[in-house]
Amino acid sequence: MSDNQDVGARVESIVADRLRVGQEALNDETRFDGEALNAESLDMVEVAEAVEADIGVHVPDEDLEEIETVGDLRSYVVERA
Amino acid sequence: MGRDVVVTGLGLVTPLGQTTESTWNGLVDGASGCGPITQFDPDEAGLRTDIAGEVGTDTGVINTDILVDDRTMGRYAQFAVTAAAEALDDAGFDPISPAWNSDRVGTSIGSGLAGLSEVEAAAGDRPSPSFLVTALTNLAAGHVSICIDARGPNRAPGTACSAGTHAIGAATDDIRRGRADVAVAGGTDAAISPLGVGSFEAMRALSSRTDDPEAASRPFDADRDGLVLAEGSGIVVLEARDHARERGATPYAAVSGAGWTGDAHHPTRPTESGDGLRRCVEQALSEANYEPTAVDHVNAHATSTSVGDAREAEALESVFASTSTPPVTSIKGQIGHTLGAAGAIEAAVVAQTISKGIVPPTANYETPDPDCNVPVVTETRKNEIDVVVSTSAGFGGTNGALVLEQP
């Protein structure tokens, strides 16, 4: 597994863990504000903090606001990891 | 309704100074209490936030060395004891005089995080026998009552950032209902620690304007981006009006109404359109028997967060819909957010506002935000003030409001 795949998988696992859904329910198109995840702002902060603690990538508020799908978050983090 | 309640003494420990006078002068002169954190190394703690509103090392009006015992008092309790000593002295009370009727004196001092930093410091080691009394939420009230021999009702609301307001509202009821003649009431918090700052940082509640601490807290301003965590204590001496009159005390203000509501909505976010706070202010005005048109000034909770300030502005707009919203000040632009102390510090500042006819400004308000459609006071102004509303709101959706007026 390349580093990128590894980071991407860790992002998905963090999202699943923090938002309490099975990882199989997630794909790149899954929207954070959609039915499956139903994430509100504090949930997104929770995800971002876990990403920072686990992968070391800080997602500032202004960028976090732009992240709409699991795929958005994965590419954001992979680019900066 | 019961007896009238007046404010006869004030005590403040804030980032602007350890007395009412230094805090008040700092507020009207536009000073800032926000600056670099000195109590610990934020970098070492892995924090991005390195600013806060810390209480300095200047001394208060009263030499509290004989009262303050740092082995049994957490920092939050030390602040409350210092502020209470000033407030009692200001009210002209001497707890060791034969005239001090201790059974008729209540203590009501709230705190949000209380001994959080004491818990943090003790974690992992075998606790000392005095650890618990340095940390429990009610020990500010406990220590103050011991120091001043107050044997009446003793209470410590733990209602987060509404705690100080709730403590004063509840003590007012004690006097109205005849449970006490005098009450030492207020709030205190001291959470400038890695865990305290880190917790708010993790929630993204803090301002990231760390390169300019004095401009970081900007209530209602369009460019606000979070609060500045601060520490301190505000204590007022409340007294039945007839009791104050009999001993010839001159009141600063009267407390004529209090509001208490819950949002029942979300752990951190206020209700849409600020409905919980609106109901709270309406309840306080109703208890005080005032229409919204009677209000001359609002001392707002506004902590400089994006959502909180906007919801509060909506709440105020809807309360004052029939008229125009009176001039609004949030002193958190200068002091930062002192959590459970905030409402009490603000009540003491409102008592000064009424007594002096001077309204302090909202620091750093430069660009109006269409989401905060309230008239914000930007310069210290002098005018007769009869009726003031002070608001508080806390995590868990707990709201408090007080109506203070000319005595």
Automatic annotation (TrEMBL), chain A:
A Pfam family matched in the record: PP-binding
Domain Carrier, first and last residues per copy: 5-81
Key words of the record: Fatty acid biosynthesis, Fatty acid metabolism, Lipid biosynthesis, Lipid metabolism, Phosphopantetheine, Phosphoprotein
UniProt cross-references to InterPro entries, sorted A to Z: ACP, ACP-like_sf, PP-bd_ACP, Ppantetheine_attach_site
The organism's place on the tree of life at top rank: Archaea
UniProt entry tagged with the keyword Electron transport: no
GO process annotations (BP): fatty acid biosynthetic process
Record PROSITE patterns: CARRIER (PS50075), PHOSPHOPANTETHEINE (PS00012)
Protein name stated in the entry: Acyl carrier protein
Organism annotation: Haloarcula rubra
From TrEMBL, chain B:
Gene Ontology process terms (BP): fatty acid biosynthetic process; isoprenoid biosynthetic process
CDD domains: KAS_I_II (cd00834)
Pfam families in alphabetical order: ketoacyl-synt (PF00109), Ketoacyl-synt_C (PF02801)
GO MF annotations, alphabetized: 3-oxoacyl-[acyl-carrier-protein] synthase activity
Entry superkingdom: Archaea
Record keywords: Isoprene biosynthesis, Transferase
SUPFAM superfamilies per record: Thiolase-like
Region (Disordered): 256-276
Residue ranges that the Swiss-Prot or TrEMBL entry lists as coiled coil: none
Residue ranges annotated for the Ketosynthase family 3 (KS3) domain, each copy included: 2-406
Family indicated by similarity: Belongs to the thiolase-like superfamily. Beta-ketoacyl-ACP synthases family.
Protein name: Beta-ketoacyl-[acyl-carrier-protein] synthase family protein
